[in-house]
Amino acid sequence: MNNSDREVILKIKQGKIDYFEYIVRKYTQVMNRYIKAKLFKKEDSEDLVQNTFLSFYKAIHRFREEYPVLPYLYQIAKNELKMYYRAHKETVTLNEQIQIIDESVGFFQTDYNELIKKLTKEQRQILNMLIEGYSYREISDKIKKPLNTVRTIIRRTRLQIQKIHNENS
Amino acid sequence: MKTLEKNIIDRVYVFESKKTFLEIIIRTITVVILLLFISLLGQVIFELLIEQQTFDLFELLKEDIEVIRIYVFDVLYELYEETPKLLTFVFILSAIGLIFVIAKTIENFNRIKNKLKSIFHHFSNR
Prior knowledge:
The complex is a heterodimer.
Chain A: H1 3-13, H2 20-38, H3 45-58, H4 69-87, E1 98-102, E2 106-110, H5 112-117, H6 121-132, H7 136-143, H8 147-168
Antiparallel strand pairs in A: 1-2
Chain B: H1 2-51, H2 65-82, H3 85-107, H4 109-124
């Protein structure tokens, strides 16, 4: 671990809050980039970065200074993102016409149930996880498949959805 | 990026100010309440012992050392019997609580002092 990080954490634990500025200056950019990459709404990223650092500060007395700061911050950011997606999760009743936003296919409206039926079980599972806000890496960890396989499945699903959409319209 | 960093630091300071001042207020209130309670309880016990003339037992100390040696345990037993047990137990418990709170405050004194310094420095430089 970076020696200065260790000293800074010790100083913060002694009540010298000004030293937290060092942590903020050092890691804000990295965290902002990480959170922005995971968010659809980029304007919410700053709030999440702020929450991440505040949560880190709140937990700093439990944090062991011999460990590196960055992985801990990433873990907090992941939890913040999960909470964010949970709070912003749209709930829809079955058989309801919903709108799906997809970067490659664009914005379109279709019968969700009809669409879902035409996909395989695996594709359905991955699509649901994508909608919930999981990253490709998290999906690959969850379904225990290599990252590239997940990428391929998602690409094929997108193409299939596009095809169904074209047929419907 | 500078604004974001400033916002983070501001939020941390606001959080810490609330926490520190709440901690100081709670500690002060606890110490004051315990002190009042202990002095009130002490006074009640003292008055009770005067009323029972328990302090007369200490007259033994004016006697010869030989007499003290013979009767000391009897006197101590008498003292124990005449002391209001429950009140004394609560008194001792409160005194231990007070000592614990004061010890914790002394232990955390530097940390709280540093926090107050940082908070004051931050808000005065705004």
